[in-house]
Amino acid sequence: MSGTRAPQRADGLSELLLSRIRDVPDHPEPGVMFKDITPLLADPVAFAALTDALAARCAELGATKVVGLEARGFILGAPAAVRAGVGFVPVRKAGKLPGATLGQAYDLEYGSAEIEIHAEDLRPEDRVLVVDDVLATGGTAEASVHLLRRSGAAVAGVSVLMELGFLAGRTRVEAALEGAPLDALVTV
Ligand SMILES: O=P(O)(O)OC[C@H]1O[C@H](OP(=O)(O)OP(=O)(O)O)[C@H](O)[C@@H]1O
Ligand SMILES: Nc1ncnc2[nH]cnc12
User: Fold this and answer.
1) For the Phosphoribosyltransferase domain, which residue ranges apply (predicted)?
2) For the packed helices 72-84 and 44-60, what is the interaxial angle rounded to 10 degrees?
């Protein structure tokens, strides 16, 4: 696909995943190169390989829950949680969750938003792996880390399928993570 750098892993996983991500120029607005993961989801081999990698990371970090970020983080995070044998907790856009919520406002590459979680689904002893598809400006992941800390859970790390390195989101997420790892299976 266009506009990408060489894969980072020696096992061929990054190359496989990258080959299934489609660049869509000017979506959802002019100037944005949208990274479309639907071809990857439609490929059972690539989707299973991604799920296995995320589940393995969950085990390596001793995570007791996967938190997925709406909406594409749900698609990636939920099967990884099942594969790892841990629970899944959704971070949703504001106004969707029916129970008592904790909320956090944040900025996107395009626009702004607020996220919420049912904090009652996390225990103080939980170690959470945050999963999402794309790290762009880092605003969503950063807000999630702050939200999770406020919920009382420990953040074991953040794992994303794809990091858009030219947007420098890593810096702000690593600052929020205070030493916990930020992993990207593919960086472009
Ligand atoms: O690093 P950032 O600049 O915060 O951007 C990354 C976030 O943006 C996208 O979500 P989006 O809110 O577009 O929603 P969707 O997954 O519901 O399509 C993507 O799935 C990440 O969650
Ligand atoms: N360029 C992009 N492609 C896909 N998802 C995104 N989320 C934020 N920026 C994005």
Assistant:
1) 59-162
2) 60
